Known about the structure:
The structure holds 2 protein chains of 2 kinds.
Chain A: E1 3-10, E2 15-17, H1 37-46, E3 55-58, E4 63-68, E5 72-85, E6 88-90, E7 94-98, E8 104-119, E9 122-123, E10 153-157, E11 167-170, E12 180-185, H2 194-202, E13 205-207, E14 215-219, E15 234-235, E16 240-242, E17 250-252, E18 259-260, E19 264-268, H3 273-277, E20 284-289, H4 292-307, E21 311-314, H5 322-332, H6 334-339
Parallel strand pairs in A: 12-20
Antiparallel strand pairs in A: 1-4, 1-10, 2-3, 3-8, 4-8, 5-6, 5-7, 5-8, 7-11, 9-10, 11-21, 12-19, 13-14, 13-20, 14-17, 15-18, 16-17, 16-19
Chain B: E1 9-12, E2 17-21, H1 28-43, E3 49-54, E4 58-63, H2 70-82, E5 92-99, H3 108-115, H4 119-128, E6 131-136, E7 143-146, E8 168-172, E9 175-179, E10 188-192, E11 213-219, H5 221-232, E12 239-242
Parallel strand pairs in B: 5-11
Antiparallel strand pairs in B: 1-2, 2-4, 3-4, 5-12, 6-7, 6-11, 7-9, 8-9, 8-10
Amino acid sequence: xxxxxxxxxxxxxxxxxxxxxxxxxxxxxxxxxxxxxxxxxxxxxxxxxxxxxxxxxxxxxxxxxxxxxxxxxxxxxxxxxxxxxxxxxxxxxxxxxxxxxxxxxxxxxxxxxxxxxxxxxxxxxxxxxxxxxxxxxxxxxxxxxxxxxxxxxxxxxxxxxxxxxxxxxxxxxxxxxxxxxxxxxxxxxxxxxxxxxxxxxxxxxxxxxxxxxxxxxxxxxxxxxxxxxxxxxxxxxxxxxxxxxxxxxxxxxxxxxxxxxxxxxxxxxxxxxxxxxxxxxxxxxxxxxxxxxxxxxxxxxxxxxxxxxxxxxxxxxxxxxxxxxxxxxxxxxxxxxxxxxxx
Amino acid sequence: xxxxxxxxxxxxxxxxxxxxxxxxxxxxxxxxxxxxxxxxxxxxxxxxxxxxxxxxxxxxxxxxxxxxxxxxxxxxxxxxxxxxxxxxxxxxxxxxxxxxxxxxxxxxxxxxxxxxxxxxxxxxxxxxxxxxxxxxxxxxxxxxxxxxxxxxxxxxxxxxxxxxxxxxxxxxxxxxxxxxxxxxxxxxxxxxxxxxxxxxxxxxxxxxxxxxxxxxxxxxxxxxxxxxxxxxxxxxxxxxxxxx
Lengths: 343, 244
């Protein structure tokens, strides 16, 4: 069955992302892909999709969507966004069926910078170099290489409905405070004196609001270099923390350039990339140096979280809003009766 | 300078990337070693190898640490780097048509002024040299080239200029480059090629490989317009031959 996910409104920076465009860094092609790979994979996993399936990456700008042509299973996972289905609030991580005529609103909440909206089925998009990940700076991927906007309609092949009533996703691994971010030191930590390494690890650093999919900019006491800040350009891994001349660290994220010429003091471990990506502007963080073994163990535990079946929990209502009660009355026909007395 | 020892320096870039560094400078001998290791790894990739990124002086090796153990990878890299270098297979010599007409070479006057050369001499020097593709980076299909004549070694701009045109020949900081996608740049535009280093609809979207040699053949504006039309229709307008 084919259905369509229709964008009713979208703030800036809402893009389509699959697991990333891999294998072309040697030609200067950025991998792109999700800022929070764990949350992206979780949303897909909840619907039985492959972990790297194309999903909407929703920015703080938010999005409102509806289904056309048939019911569409939806899962959301990521930051503590405010989700509502036809005005009824839902948990930030949830699975539901979006029916034609209904609208699902995803708005920034108290914490988190990104959330992922996955659909049950396959978003039918042309691949560029084998991937659908949007890289807006290159104009690649997604829908015409750009962010989504109101009026966009996304065809979903093999569309399936989700649970009859909305359910919460049981994904405790998405609770990840950003205060401590683990790093492996290097590859160019030898460009910094011992006291500067200590200052880097002591922090604290404040995540600025200037960040985007390319990089996370940090504010704090600037670091100094022991032997200049120019290196002959070399490769950049996702999570590399480069320190340019002015001394404020920059963490390079999904849309980073493939190579660069500033020394990289440390690299954020894979499992903490999403943790950092979810830090809203103003969040204070510290870095903690770990060895590779700890980083690999964290990866293993992340992979294990995604390997099992994901539990869904029915919603138990604790607050009965007027809208909710009105909804019940409609079903019971009471409002119809009351309406008979209306002028 | 190349490292005196035969072994590359191994640097971890997190738990999923390993850098094999053969030196710290731009040097064809260092780059040859980077490419030899790249070729050897790609010829028989160990399970868990994700992708490799050759740069001027190092090879970044992305891997899945849940599949490929870092120390096993390091052993393999050191063994391959110690093996006698095989001749590189597949390195090609490309001749790219290049238009140095002022309409295509917006900044050639500024380069002439900075170097004290005439515009014609700048174009002749640029077209007369042979370049090595050291690496791609910065943007899709942005190729860094070594081999710029010393006379053209102007420093980069103090502030970037607005986006250069597509497929621009750039110079700055003693290096040359081909800028495939229009981007703001601190370099100078000295010409344009109708050839595309990124051709998404071709069977091989990236015709020019790292390690290939580039030459430029000067063409006039009318030829440029003609080749530009043919390249836009999907034709390969550069000439390729295997290295001797």
